[in-house]
């Protein structure tokens, strides 16, 4: 649907770019340079579905929140995430790390992405415990990794398809297959590669998914965390509601996510307008733009009509 990038007044563009950069890469940690090393390819190519879809920060946020809802519905993943992460104590920092990891996986030079994923796998090796039901778990368990990887792929694709542009089965297949190299580096060995396999996995996992106060706590944290500037916090709450809307209605009911957690008709239209505007918003320091420049492509390569 691209019609070229939106032209914004320089002060507004600069402000948005600065905020996005600070949000993705906090100043008190290492900065990942998406522009280096010059010419080095990513794990997936610049003309991929992944590069097109992940450039949209609105649908990436919505899809990421939806994925975490499904992950927290699985008892072992829930125990690992909630007991061994900083979601409760420092949600913004945790979101920054998670968002940066997603961007590095798609856009970063392959050597940097492999190094980053290797570090995540080593840290996960120390994450073990017992669920509230008395079942032992390991973060690097293949079944859990498959579920986390699949929910992430589903969330990003579903958010983009719902709020920007519908993805047909061929587009979904391309997107899912593009994620395979990174999934295997993480240790996920049996992730879906097309829409039918994704539906089959969701059907197999359905009996394991359950309601938990943790899911409601997570959504409340996402509504309140200082992700967007204070004047835009109402928009942030809408985006969290949009994530809830992606979850199947029957599963939403089983998880205790009633209509108040989602959106009404006019709110859906507002979110769709925001997401479609973000689709054409070229932010100079974004991973998408910097990675295009790394490969010798124009800054607006991903924003041209197709």
What does this structure look like?
- With 306 residues, the protein is an all-alpha fold.
- It has one domain (48-298).
- It is 59% helix and 2% strand.
- It has helices at 10-24, 49-54, 57-72, 75-83, 91-107, 110-124, 142-163, 169-178, 180-186, 195-205, 213-224, 233-246, 249-254, 265-278, 287-294; strands at 128-130, 136-138.
- The protein has a two-stranded antiparallel ribbon with strand order 1-2.
- β1 and β2 form a beta hairpin.
- α5 packs across α6.
- The longest helix has 22 residues, at 142-163.
- The radius of gyration is 18 Å and the shape is globular.
- The termini are close together.
Q: Write down the overall geometry.
A: globular
Q: Biggest sheet: strands side by side, in what order?
A: 1-2
The secondary-structure class comes to mainly alpha
Count the E strands: 2
SSE ordering: HHHHHHEEHHHHHHHHH
The average pLDDT is 92
How many structurally independent domains?
1
Give a quick summary of the entry.
This protein is 59% helix and 2% strand.
How do the helices and strands line up, and which of them pair or pack?
Layout: H1 10-24, H2 49-54, H3 57-72, H4 75-83, H5 91-107, H6 110-124, E1 128-130, E2 136-138, H7 142-163, H8 169-178, H9 180-186, H10 195-205, H11 213-224, H12 233-246, H13 249-254, H14 265-278, H15 287-294
Antiparallel strand pairs: 1-2
